[in-house]
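Suppose you are handed a protein chain with no further information: no name, no annotation, nothing but its sequence. What can you learn? This example shows the usual starting point.
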Amino acid sequence: MRQTRTTHALMIARPGREEVAQGGLAELAALDALLADLTEADWRRRPTASGWTVHELVAHLVGQHAETARPWTIGGRVRAARKRFPALSALDAHNALQVETFAPLSDGELRRKLAAVGPRAVRMRRRTPAFVRRQGTERYFPGEPLVEPTLAYVLDVLSPRDTWLHRLEIARATDRPFAADPHQESVVAQVVRDLAEEWASPPLVLELDGAGQWRLGEGEPIAWVRASVLEYLWHLSGRPGNPEFDVDGDPAAVDALRAARVVF
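A reasonable first move is to predict its three-dimensional structure. Written in structure tokens, the prediction is:
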């Protein structure tokens, strides 16, 4: 097994507000470019992961960004969602209400709405005051464990990650190329940090092609494992798939990587 020195994933810093803003705008631009290329039939396709059509998935993203742009509305929307969909979890009900609210828009209207509200949401993430960012997420979504259960974590880490993954989902559902822009590096790094936060398996080195390499766990690594960044993050999100691993060392390391999941 190679002995190259690597950084421990727990040393990955959380992104600053400016990095979050720049990445958010870049992700919205990449998403808009993808949506601009879709046909009417593409909008009706149904990605296997979410169960929504592409149109409904974009309605969810519009709802998410609309609420982020006006964060004082989130509490009321969560309460309304619980009443509207009492059989669902708070998070699933919230997502369902977003889809119900914005899905009546046409494909073009959804794209224009996201282009309008998305940048406002990014600006609000940057401006949200510290006392709001410190708020716990349990008040909104009890039973949804997060590595860091704060609104800051949702704004800075989960929201960019969610948009990025849904763009990948749309690209795959519509057989479109996925643009791996530079802002993806931050998304990937934060996923790996969260993976390290929950890691309870033997130590190893994880190398994701084109993204970097990091140590997971404490002690001497039992293996060096390489995987496709897109395939492994897709797997970590719980989407169906079977990523391939190239292992140098103990093959048991692969079992731990396959069993792991990260919140998206």
